[in-house]
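pinning this so it doesn't scroll away 📌
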Amino acid sequence: MKERVFGKRMPRTSDERLLRGRGMYVDDVPVRGALEVVFVRSPHAHARITEIDLEEARATPGVHAVYGAGDLGAFDRPLPLLFPHPDLVEPRTQNPIASDEVHYAGQIVAMIVAEDRYVAEDARERVRLELDPLPVVVDVDAALEDGADQVHSDMEGNVSGHIVQQVGDPDAAFRDAHLVLRHRYILERSAAMPMETRGMVAEWDPRGEELMLWNATQVVHPLRSGLAQFFDIPESRIRITAPDTGGGFGVKGFFMYPEEVLVPWAARELRRPVKWIEDRVEHFTASHHERTQIHDVEIAVTEDGVVTALRDEFLVDTGAFVPYGLELGRITAGQIGGAYRIPNIHVGFRGVYTNTVVCTPYRGAGRPHMCFVTERALDDVARALGIDQFEVRRRNFVGDDEFPYRRDGLVTADGFTVIMDSGAYFTQMSMLEEALDMPALREAQAASRETTKLLGVGLACYVESTGGGPYEGAHVIVEPDTGTVRVTTGFTDQGQSHSTTLAQVAAERLGADLASVQVELGDTAKFRWGIGTYASRGAVHGASAVDRAAGTVRDKALRLAANMLEVSPADLEVEDGRISVKGSPGTSVTLGQVAKAAKPDRYGFDNDLAALAALGPAVPRESSDEGPLLHSDEEPGLEATGFFSPQNSTWASGVHAAVIELDTETGAVRFVRYVVVHDCGIVINPLVVDGQVIGGIAQGVGGSFYERLAYDAQGQIQNASLMDFLIPYATEVPEVELHHLETPSPLNPLGVKGAGEGGAIPVPAVAAAAIDDALSAFGVAVRRMPLDPEELMDLAAASGAHSDKGDR
């Protein structure tokens, strides 16, 4: 029997093409005669526009048009609020071009379209912009003070909304608690930095009033829907395709950015293709950020360290606008409690406007915050009660026999009740401890305290709601000319290896050779319906949809082949794309031959058709009172479409541990070991999952020690370049020891869970715990991330950790 391809470490099908430089990214789209766009952006974080003079820019040779807000006519209106909510009381979204007031440095105030970018940038210098500065709000706490300055002049206060959820009776649990701890935990602002920035090429066909848009986006179908409404044309007249995309991480999962409206609008106005490629400075000041949340937490425990209640009131920095509504806070709130059996929970949050770049999801999307809160709170409990950090978690884990585990009163951002579908948290912890060899580590740590390089061990467990709704679909066809299995789906690929994993699913279900499967992604003309790639949903939705469609094709192929070979479908087997009679492999047809025979127009220059004519018809002829029918109600061809919608979120989980060496003289942190036990349900391709986990850890390391966006009091980013916003090199990313545990999800046919974000979620909590542990003898507790070397040195100095070891 042929070895399975599902669950095997198969090489990525796209690697050879991409590594040989044969990819096609947005900047490579071969559209002749494309004009190029440069945007004029506000230099102030908050100001009133008193005058904008575009005439000198318009007169620049090579400039085709310069547009301000007044030139947009009916299109000068707020962009969509994508996630309305009854508790979102003051929603604000930006117009494509600001007209009266700007609310963050980088907001668009004009658009220049020219023969090339060089001309457009020259013309930008000739725009005369006069702004009357207004008070700037950057600090989240200060935004809530009485008499605080306003981010939006037409609002009272800076709160966009407030949501509260409750499980059990937390007030009673706090009254009866043996110990209540109160702490503040903070993760600060950061941003995705994909290798490829955003960009698009728009071409408008005036003959049919049709738009073709090549866009580095994670969400082709929702963007098509939004543009159809914006331009008031049918969706069928818009084609959006995402070519090869150099990373997304959520920043390309948002729609609609102002540029995504303005570039197609300019193409329609000028009847010329129009292109915009974001530069790196724009990416810092115009593409969305994430992360800043401030959590004030109370945790109630028994004398044995069993958590009886958790209360969390937190603030979410939304930036200047809320196109995603309150979704980031809702995602965070839905993860509260983590892997632990906490019967009483209160969680509330407020969205807070600031005069900064808009915040929407970045890899992890609110989950790292609640992991940081929950895990740091458990470590604070362990410290207060003198309990080992491993043991305090065991005393609170949800048991293996308690799944599905419900938190009634708490909902995910998709509106589902929080029901964790499956897991094995005790097993994860045991696997981790065995891999670490803690007795040997503690001996090494004790020895390190005689030096200036202290060892510390930190761990954090995480859970992650994955597979967010509402659906995804796929089409599978066996091509009658070549026998190629073609899989088409609407979601996109920014490096997640969807082409490989979906091919494995299709090949396994069909019994086809993996090399015969081709996957097409992210083109609204090739697959009409879809949602997109985000929230670790590709495998849960996309692979399940492919499995469903391929299963239908397989069943049909067996029925048709049975008629051709004059046997029962139960007597057939499929292997390597060939359908054979069991026990008689010479009596067989290929999937491609079945596909040919299933066509009613079996004509052409194909000798294979003559051989097929000797077999029975693929589709049985039937008789009726009117005479013989050509075929039954069987649809011609060998193809099917399948869709999958979830009943609820799947819940991936894992535990990470790091052994770090902290140099108390320099503040440098070196990872000695990094161990992961990871559970994303049934693994389609372990090689791909390893890459996703390790890539997430790299971003988590950045979010722990390097990647902090620094604003000054005037709303200006102080490190808007890759010289100053530090991204970890390969030398800073640890070697990862990765162990897989598979607890199947009962919520989809493959038993899979999402794997795209789990690597990034727990790293700040792990790093903070390891630093705590290194400085444990000196009473240090880390409750804010990221930390830079100077801050680490200050911690060590304040603790006295190296006061008597200067010469060692």
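📌 and the second one:
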Amino acid sequence: MTVSEITLDLTEREIEILELLNEGLKNKEIATRTHLTLYTVKWYLKQIYSKLYVSNRTQAASKARELGLFQEDAKRISREMAAIRTNLPESVMPFFGREGDIEQVKDWLLGDMRLVTLHGIGGMGKTRLALEVGHRLLPAFTDGVYFISLTASDINPLHLLADTLTLNASGTDVTAQVATYLHNKHMLLIFDNFEHLLPYATEISHLLEQTRNLRIIVTSREILNLSHEVVIPLQGLTSEDSDAAYQLYIQRARSSIGNYTPDSAESAYIHKICKLVGGMPLAIEMVAGWVSVMSAAETYERVKRNIDLLTSDEHDRPQRHQSIRAIFDYSLESLPYDLKQAVIKLGIFHYEGFTLKDAEAVADLSPLALRQLTQAALLQRDTDGRFKFHPLIRQYITALLRADETLYSETKDAHGAHYFKFSEYLVDQLNAPNFSLRLIDEFRAGGGNLLLAWRHALRQGYYDWLLSATEVGYITEMAGNWDLSLKMYYDTLAKTPESETLLRGRLLALISVFEGRLYYMERLETSARESWELLKDSDYVWDARAAMQYLALLKAIMGAGDEAFAILDKVDAKSIPSHLQPNAYVDSLNRIARPLALMYTHQLEQARPLLERAKVPTWSESVIYLPECYYLLGMEDKAHQSLVRLYTAALDNRNHRLAQMIVLYLTLLEHDDADIPNALTHNLRELINIGFKYQFIVRNGFYFGVMSMMRGLQREAFYSWYGAMRLLDDLHEISLKYQYANQIAGHLVSLMPEKAFALYDAIANASDAPERLKEQARNHLLNLPPVSEDSTGDVNKVLLASIH
């Protein structure tokens, strides 16, 4: 492989990392310098090793020096590019982000793929991306890279190509003449804005069939539907490109205010704006143009209400790109009337999207129609099979739907009826003998739409539907949506008439479960007892029993053991008709409530035989308590065996909380104190590698730490918190880290005030903590007696020091 080929294959980011590697920087230092996560740096190093045919850092740096990649290479490539024939326009503005897309297009074109379509709605940056790829590939195409704009044309694109190449093509068979000229040429062509010339798509196909080394990039709002074609559906700059979106905003803002430098508050709103507009490059450029008129906060609030702020008066911008609304109008008006109306109905769905089945039921859209919409770039289908609008398109479509009161009302009813059936399905599965936690994934996928349907039913007074759907709350509890679910149930209870006693009783029962998870002791006592009185003689007695069992368990944790067992005796004494069977969640709680209360009151020997006989299903989080009982009794071998056996089941069932608790206990059992911090961090990272979301892992670590601390398991609590904080460090989620650290300190105030002070002090003095969180910590310090020793230090060090 030649120097030219290696240099071409390496990305700018990879060369940057190689240079830092050559300076002797370690992975973490490279991550800090490049603002990448440690994981991303390691991924890049793997790519570099592969491309340079080496196996380690030393070899990579040596090979790079040998090839001269750090010295004259850039100048040499510039000289090579200057000698290559091209008509590519030079970029006036810098290009931001899209490295993943660029690498994919390059890999395809330098491989076996000969036609790549950059597909997306107007404003997504298709042309800019195509030009960037063209410039980067100049050294690879010895016969040139040529750009053919089709914007103002209605003729065969190959006529324009012939003109671009200054061929003397004449007659009717231009394709054959162009193909003859290009037969052996090693050339890249870029056809820009092909969507209005789709009848000529076959000309592109014929051209490829009659040439050997030709490669083509097409940009289009619609795919060409050719057998040769591979498509990159282009959406906005994603979270991976969030820094690129921010830099694009800053660059465009400086066109209005040359020295524009946002402070931290302004920067936070710029990030929110970029997310609000879904990372659409054109929208970011337009919204940045208002920097001379209003702050980023004001801009954000206005764009959130109306997309009409997204306009441009720049004279060199094409007419079709003068406003975001004009782009969307063009796409929608090109559809047949019936399909246009169906698309507008899709505005009723939650931003999380919908399935083919959902679209058929609510908007009467066929698979063929959905394919047409995806090909027109109005919709995108995720890998999980869900269709979604770009955020700005959804805002535009939803506004059109709300403007038609009749259509809006009819569509809301259709949406509500469809998700009423979905709630029935969820409840049926919850009560099925073969219940599986896979149901939670289904709930999460449709949960946003279910919430919209719930609110619609509440506004319309459909209390029978709400009564039957209330049981879905157990699934939201298992999914960990405690705060949101509690708010929704509180709101529903407040708007439910007193006459609806069964609904109110069920709502209170589920409210008790959420309050129990969040340790709202006083509220839980009221909710659970009221639910029991309303439901104890009804068909929903199992719900009330679950509420009372949660109350008993909280009493046990708080040290009120006598009250806890009195409550359990009371509900156990209630005779329940045999035809009333508990659902899977309630049944699991019923099996574990008494032995768990014994554990919480430190009666481990009495709890052990009850736990061994309980036969808790392996999908249930409660299955952890038997190995935990062994662990607390000092039966380490037995605890380890049980945990190892359960770990596979936890992964198979996608049970985040169970898997994380198992990981914590296994780490504590398998490692010495000195090795536990790094081993725990490694094991938690493995959960992410398996596919668990880090947000859930961090939240679970926080929750398990709180629960352990309340039970007097201080070592387990601090390690659980420490693991969550280290994970956030590694992922560079700094704001979230200090947000959780403040909450941890808050839980320690009454239990261990000196540790709370040390933690608040570490936050207040942290150089990387957001100012608002530092201010919160400083305010809390004013209400705490200072500790005698020097408590200033890193949050993680404070947590580790608290363990020993």
